[in-house]
Amino acid sequence: MLLSIGLILILSILFGNIFEKINLPKIIPYIFIGIIFSNKIDLSLINISAEIRKIALVIILIRAGLTLDYTVLKSMGKSSILMCFLPATIEIIGTLIFAPLIFNISIIDSLILGSVIAAVSPAIVVPRMINLINKGYDKVPQLILAGASMDDIFVITLFTIFMTIEKTGVVTLNQIFILPLSIILAIIFAIIFKYISIYIFKIIKDDTFRIIIFFALSLIILELEKYLPIASLLSITLVAMLLKKEETELANKFKITYEKMWKLFEILLFVLIGANLKISSVFDYGLLALSLLIITQIFRMVGVFLSLLGNKFNKSEKIFAMGAYLPKATVQAAIGAIPLASGVKSGELILTIAILSILITAPIGALFIDNFYEKLLQKK
């Protein structure tokens, strides 16, 4: 395992640096390294890939929570709420309509596929929006940052529900009410864990240990999903937001450390998802998958446009939001392989489309954000 990790890290950093210099996401070479060396990666590393995916999600959502500004979001009214679920919902509807027509798959498999590909990527969006906020482009990046984080949580919750339905074959009353209940519990536990964190921080003065403790508490929240119907990822983001509000200086120190932690887990996350891809599946589904992705992204942009109606965003800001909400990467890498591992009939198709969605939308979205923000956004 150690040899595999060493080679993965060295190659990923070298090629990722090359891609960054030409303004392309470094996750692209990470995925290809996983594809190329899939037969060489130690099985013991593959076996813990699920845990690595979870840790990566926790880190990126903590970073988002430590950056979000509640007062700015409040000033945007209904748009800040709609961006959390409407674009993803409309994209899933688009997948539900067209996936059975293109691939002849079942309704539930289409819903699972839709929930896998509907999430926007924190790996692409969060660092770029944080950078824009730091440059003084505050309003739209704050909206996108919040929406992207909550969008992922919403989609992952739907994914969990759809996977349960696929396994049991029935829709129960409990499953219908699970989403609002999970959100309420997420808020309650976020408040509880905020007070626990602040209490511990009064005892522990070393910032390094404080960061470790906060990370450990976040992992505990994540594992609560095994015992309670809680939207744990939402709760983790909210705890980070509440910590920032209470301890701004400490939160800023946390942000720096979690940014460094993300660099490591980002590599492992995308290399391992690449290692799971079968090249033959790309040739089998490639053009059809591309057509589905184009259709669903049109649906997604309609969802973003509708979310921004009735708010004081000009035309160029709406165009930026629609383009910035396209990239897919983190959630697709984190959950794309689960249907296949769980024996879902269309699991291989879902994984293939998930990876193709990363390879296609991540560079397009990243290039759009990096090259058009100055033309489309105004500084505060």
Automatic annotation (TrEMBL):
Q: Which GO terms describe its biological process?
A: proton transmembrane transport
Give the Pfam families listed for this entry: Na_H_Exchanger (PF00999)
Domain Cation/H+ exchanger transmembrane positions: 11-365
Which region is the signal sequence?
Answer: none
Residue spans crossing the bilayer:
55-73, 80-105, 111-131, 143-165, 177-196, 203-221, 264-283, 289-310, 322-343, 349-373
In the UniProt record, does the keyword Oxidoreductase occur?
no
Show the GO MF annotations: antiporter activity
The keyword Kinase belongs to this UniProt entry's keyword annotation: no
State the compartments where it is located.
Membrane
| Lipid bilayer topology | Multi-pass membrane protein
Name the keywords, alphabetized: Membrane, Transmembrane, Transmembrane helix
* Any one GO CC term of the record: membrane
What is the protein's given name? Answer: Cation:proton antiporter
Q: Name the species this protein comes from.
A: Streptobacillus felis
Q: List the top taxonomic levels of the source.
A: Bacteria, Fusobacteriati, Fusobacteriota, Fusobacteriia, Fusobacteriales
